[in-house]
């Protein structure tokens, strides 16, 4: 892998060499070929989440035709891919386009401060020793034997992908859930896509397949949101058909919410239900009261025997790797700030965050953000602008407007009365717990959250770039035409 060791200024700094980071790098080097950039990666490998997590059965819960890079089409027959395949795909894509040569491994962003006087960010970087050990195995495989009993706590994508693999290694596996999820079985190999590849040239086939996977899931999501009761009935009917007679539909598959208020659990070839049919796996819907030396005691009085307990209950969300962000020495509390077009943080110059979709492939949203960022950078370059910062209350006739975001509505400027909205539209527990740390969105103008890929993709390429942004001309700060540093 390439290494950029010499200290220097970069036009763009990207934090993280995962899926979103590699995609952002491609967009920068393609859209802004005269700009220098680097990727700072705290670990020693490309891949982000897909390299960090190595638990048995790890896979995507989105199809790779849309979860993959739009500039490097997924060519494999399996649309729902395993973690190893995804990790290799990210690495190969980075190497193919020379992105790997721009990565500085073992470099971790410690903090970031913007100086309004200097019009530059200062970002201390910790250079981690290359001799530092790297822990690769985050799964329990080495401790599992055919005599072991396992309890998986959780009912989301992680638990659903673990169970079919673990029954092959243990004597019995129990999925213990507090609340049920919706499940849907899909073929692991998309025969229609294979047929399209046989009929059309590769470049046409890739586009047709991608559009198929863009449109059909979007239509299904729209149906679920507009006809929730009908969608719930249909999903439960399909689940009932897949279940073995020994596993009741209620309470194990009766969520308290409607479809797509939380993500659906994807089961390639119905592998989850096939695991239940073996008799080596079961589901318990209950609440934990205590963990004992021999297993778990639940609120209903059951004691579930276990040699191994695996928690698959969601992650703690974090933006920017947890590095403190300040402007002129003042700490930025993200929860108190709004997002401009779901990408730039209010009153933070020349900085952007990558947030994908919750109701579609994450990469679709991260690519929309990357394209938008590149357009903003081009605009700044072409108009000799030193910095751009989203600002509430910034009307064409009110260049120094401001707004207080302490209440649930904005009280000044063009966005008076704007209602506060969550940046992620899911009711999942890990999303609910993150509301106190994530930025906010509104119900007006450029402060609205992303709605769907088709609208947002058009907006990223053709939409307005100036409403809600405050620009500082380079001439006003004594800067040259070329801005020295811009952070992504």
UniProtKB/TrEMBL annotation:
Pfam families attached to this UniProt entry: NAD_binding_8 (PF13450)
Organism field: Cudoniella acicularis
Keywords of the record: Monooxygenase, Oxidoreductase
Biased composition regions of type Polar residues, renumbered to the chain: 116-126
Protein name: Monooxygenase
Region of interest (Disordered), ranges: 116-142, 390-412
InterPro entries given in the database record: FAD-binding_MO, FAD/NAD-bd_sf
GO MF: monooxygenase activity
Top-rank lineage group of the source organism: Eukaryota
Cofactor(s) required, per the database record: FAD
